[in-house]
Design goal:
Number of strands: 21
Low-confidence stretches: 123-156, 272-276, 280-327
Structural class: alpha+beta
Helix content: 25-40%
Mean pLDDT: 82
Number of domains: 3
Length: 634
């Protein structure tokens, strides 16, 4: 029997090991799913929607080829709505996926005219165009121009489209050789755009690969189980051999047989032993077991009764359903940027700012700065060109980002607020307000201020949600955002006598100490009798920016312009600048004037404005100020 069991174990072990190895070799599943297509028509833009990218689970690997110049090819991905808005009225090819045949499909999309928010409504090129009315005027044939050169066959060449490289809309971008093979794991609502430089056709060979689960969970147990069973079979075989050899040992033959043992007498009970007790004692002994059995039965029956008494318990209080309607996902506006996207934007801005500051290159600076921030830095470049010892403005660092507050919106323009904290504790944190005017524009720095030492940034919405923009004329704040700059300018002019003095916090306001009413009074007192000094301030030309805080207040960015005018009031007198080698002299090109000098200072201001009805005061969070112009007046 042992040999039979051993043979069965050997056979079972061989089958298990063979099946386990076959699962890893012969019957192993494919490691990936791959589909590819060649896009015809030489489109400049190819879009792959997230529904295609997520046709199979797992990380997507995208391979592109066929570009005229590999250095110009671009593969980027972003929100589907952002990709569509960036394309605008540009014709593109949309790649789909046929689940039935597992092949990629292509469709040419010709968007309609762009909407007012910068987006567009795509339409399939196969749809029939509306028929023109009889009174419609035919469109004139465009005349070939420099942007639309005529080809050899007389046709007009297509105008070059926009280049997607370097756009701030993309969550991630791959350029040049890096775009040939990219791996990504995009969620729903994300699309991939494939392009060249906008003037040439995009790479038309597209291949998508998804990994498949090649794990064989039963392979290892089968192999190890087969090996274990092999050991068991071997043990049984050796045991059988041992028993067989032992049973074949030396035996004695012949001789007398052993006598049989005598049988023992049968037992017979005597009359003195009674098998069944009788009388009163026997009754008592029999009654002893009855209560014990009865108590056990009652205990069990009692438990059963409690369990089955009420199988459907009655609720003591009826729950009231929640009547509040939760917002649907489609009704929630997305944040303008993600944190990783903002980090990439800040790296680009920092790179441009560093290069522009080193070379005093205003043109380069204008690619990433605008408004008050651009004006102040350009003036600093002009001063440093004539005054080499003039200090540069604080550098714009890329990281670390302490605050990231994007606007919650799906339209344009878009606003993002961020705070960069330098690793050097001697340097003040820099707060910036970035604005993107259209989908094809990059974010530009409108405001860049140094935070006050005692500044406390109010509670803000998380970056994953974003904050709404507050209207400039909003009455829900202590002061409408459009009036904050002028009100603060009045305080710098009149100090505590200003009608707005009670609305603003004085503690921690270092700008008021530097150029406030007391400073201006001292400057007037030091002016000689032959000249007069007057001050004037007004809100700057840039529109204020206000973003809501969690307490219904707002972060308000505003700019202020202040002019100092010194005039000669006595014939033959002359106005001399206090610092003959200072910034004003550098911009003016002279240190004195026989008529008068007017200097203009620009102020970038960041405030926290509390909600209307609050006891809190408007607080200056940070500022940047400097000379922006100087001229001689008559």
């Amino acid at each position: 029997m042992r040999f039979v069991l051993a043979i069965v174990a050997f056979v079972a072990a061989a089958v298990m090991i063979a099946v386990g190895i076959a699962q890893r070799t012969v019957f192993a599943p494919p490691s990936q799913v791959a589909v590819s297509t060649t896009v015809k028509g030489d489109p400049r833009y190819i879009v792959i929607d997230s529904t295609v990218l997520n046709s199979h689970p797992g990380q997507q690997t995208l391979a592109v080829s066929g570009a005229a110049d590999v250095k110009t090819q671009v593969v980027a991905y972003g929100r589907t709505a952002d990709v569509t808005s960036w394309l605008g009225d540009e014709t593109y090819t949309s790649i789909g996926y046929d689940d039935a045949t597992s092949v990629l499909t292509t469709k040419t999309v010709k968007p309609k005219a762009a909407d007012s928010d910068g987006g567009s409504k795509p339409t399939d090129s196969s749809t029939t165009s509306p028929t023109a009315s009889p009174t419609a005027t035919p469109t004139a044939t465009p005349t070939p121009s420099a942007s639309s050169p005529a080809t050899a066959d007389g046709k007009t060449a297509e105008k070059a489209g926009p280049n997607p490289a370097g756009s701030d809309l993309w969550l991630e971008e791959f350029d040049g050789a890096d775009a040939t093979l990219t791996r990504m794991n995009v969620p729903d609502g994300i699309s991939v755009i494939i392009s060249s430089d906008g003037a040439h056709a995009a790479p038309n060979e597209v291949r998508l690969v998804w990994p498949l689960d090649t794990s064989t969970p039963w392979s290892t147990p089968l192999i190890y189980g087969g090996l274990g069973l092999l050991v068991v079979g071997l043990a049984l075989y050796l045991w059988g051999l041992y028993k067989l050899r032992k049973s074949r040992g030396p035996r004695r033959k012949g001789g007398p047989k052993m006598p049989k043992l005598p049988k023992a007498p049968k037992y017979k009970p005597s009359k003195a032993v009674e098998t069944t007790p009788k009388g009163r004692r026997s009754t008592r002994r029999a009654m002893v077991a009855v209560p014990v059995v009865l108590v056990g039965a009652l205990a069990l029956s009692g438990c059963t009764t409690n369990l089955l008494a009420d199988p459907k318990p009655t609720l003591t209080k009826t729950a009231t359903p929640i009547a509040t309607d939760l917002p649907k996902a489609k009704d929630v506006l997305p944040p303008a940027v993600t944190v990783s996207q903002l980090e990439l934007i800040m790296k680009r801005i920092s790179t441009v700012a560093t290069a522009a500051d080193a070379k005093s290159d205003s043109k380069l600076l204008a690619t990433r700065f605008t408004g008050p921030a651009l004006q102040l830095r350009e003036a600093n470049y002009a001063i440093r060109a004539k005054k080499s010892d003039q200090a540069a403005l604080p550098a714009i660092l890329a990281s670390p980002l302490k605050v990231a507050l994007p606007q919650a919106t799906s339209t344009w323009p878009r606003v993002v607020t961020t705070v960069v904290v330098p690793s050097d504790t001697k340097l003040a944190p820099i707060a910036l307000a970035l604005v993107q005017e259209t989908p094809r524009d990059n974010y530009l720095v409108n405001y860049a201020v140094s935070l006050e030492p005692k500044a406390k940034v109010p509670d803000l919405a998380p970056a994953s949600i974003g904050a709404p923009i507050v209207r400039p004329d909003s009455k829900l704040l202590t002061l409408p955002p459009q009036d904050v700059a002028a009100a603060y300018g009045d305080i710098l002019m009149n100090g505590d006598k200003s009608k707005y003095a009670d609305l603003f916090e004085t503690d921690g306001d270092t700008l008021r100490t530097q150029v406030g009413a007391d400073y201006k009074a001292k400057m007037k007192a030091a002016m000689p009798a032959t000249a007069s000094l007057t001050y004037a301030s007004q809100a700057g030309p840039a529109d204020p920016i206000a973003m809501a805080t969690n307490d219904s207040g707002a972060l308000v960015w505003a700019n202020l312009t202040e002019t100092d005018t010194t005039k000669v009031v006595e014939a033959g007198a002359e106005v001399n600048l206090t610092d003959a080698n200072g910034p004003a002299a550098a911009l003016l090109g002279a240190a004195s004037s026989k008529t008068g000098i007017q200097t203009t200072y620009g102020y970038q201001l960041a405030f926290y404005v509390p909600p209307a009805g609050s006891d809190a005061k408007i607080t200056l969070l940070g500022f940047a100020q400097g000379l922006v112009a100087a001229k001689e007046v008559q």
